[in-house]
Amino acid sequence: MARSLRLATAALSDLMGYAGQEAHDAKSLGLLLNLDHGYFHQCQQARQRQQAEQLGLPTKDLPDLEEERERYRRRFLPRLEELSGVTFHPRHQRLFFEGPAGFFSALEEAIRKLRARELDGCVVGGVDSYLDPELLRMLLGLRMLKTPDQPVGFLPGEGAALVLLERYEHAARRSARIESLVGTPGVGQDSHHRFSGKPNAGGTLAQTLRGCIQQPELRGRRVGLTIGSLNGNEWRAREWGMSLLTLGPELGDARQWHPAESFGETGAATAAFATCMAVRALQRTYARTEDVLVWASGEDGRKGAVRIHSLHGPQP
To answer: N or C: which terminal CB in the chain sees fewer CB atoms within 10 Å?
Structure first.
């Protein structure tokens, strides 16, 4: 928890300063953070139980995932407020434990709260680290890491990324920086997962992406760039490739960026990283498009996507 808190505190301090949001004004803001899904821990525990049963050995008492999540729910956000000096609306704070695609669930909830005028704004983001020694040993055992003996895999990374989401009129009223607009997120859930033994045909991801591409309010605006969660893992690459075949001309010749190329695998922070990359690329115009499609897929079967568009050109 300490490592994630340090990452989140640094990201929050940076965001509040950049957004011109004073710490004492944050009580009208919500805070929705996405953390690790615990999927790899569950897979490792299942393997250990299976091996023990095959050898006729007693199974060890393994850490309970839900108890660990409850500990985070009690301590993480209060400690983050204490370390950062920023206090958020007490009834609009929540942790999501949904891995790479969980950011879109948090974004979806934030948009719902803003549309219902429950909040003036909401900080949404993700934080994760794959550099913990115990987790690295676990990932090695599951053959998820890229090594000399395992050429297909990912390089571990860590980080935290946050965005401040506001209603347009509220941000304009306080003369805030408005750097991009966000569409309605799409989320999906596959019936199978990374270690289910079933092929990943990319159907759920393609459906999730298509829902964002074909949003009526964005009709006529072409996606010129995608930023996604490819990380060197063959399972994700196959899914993405199958999705592209399904979507065909709907994505056309859109360019592709992937945060893992620069930062390594950042888990639950991946989609938040991608969103920040999209916003900055649009704001500084090196995206070379007015619409960016951000997407992520998790090994647990969750999928998510959202369109980020510039302030230039026709508005939705």
So the answer is: N
Q: Is CATH 1.25.40.10 the right assignment for the domain spanning 2-173? A: no
Q: Are 135 and 40 spatial neighbours (Cβ–Cβ below 8 Å)?
A: yes
Classify 181-309 by CATH class.
Answer: alpha beta
Q: d(Cα 221, Cα 314) in Å, to the nearest integer?
A: 8
Mind listing the pLDDT tens digit for each residue in 40-73?
888 887 777 777 667 676 666 556 788 889 999 9
Give the relative orientation of helices 39-55 and 133-141 as an angle to the nearest 10 degrees: 60
For the chain, give every domain's residue range.
2-173, 181-309
Q: Which among 126, 127, 130, 156 has a CA at the least distance from the CA of 41? A: 130
Please list the residues that pair with 226 across neighbouring strands.
256, 293
Looking at residue 239, its amino acid is E
Torsions phi, psi of 258, nearest 5?
Answer: -145, 120
pTM for this prediction: 0.92
Q: Fill in the DSSP letter of residue 267.
A: G
Strand partners, 29: 121
Q: Given its phi and psi angles, is residue 209 left (phi above 0), alpha (psi -120 to 50 degrees) or beta?
A: alpha
For residue 204, the tally of other CB atoms under 10 A from its CB is 20
Contact 89, 29 (CB under 8 A): yes
What is the C-alpha separation between 264 and 166, in angstroms, rounded?
30
In the structure encoding, which two tokens stand for residue 216, read together?
A: 């009526």
pLDDT digits (tens, 9 = 90+) for 270-295: 999 999 999 999 999 999 999 999 99
d(CA 56, CA 52): 6
The one-letter amino acid at 68? E
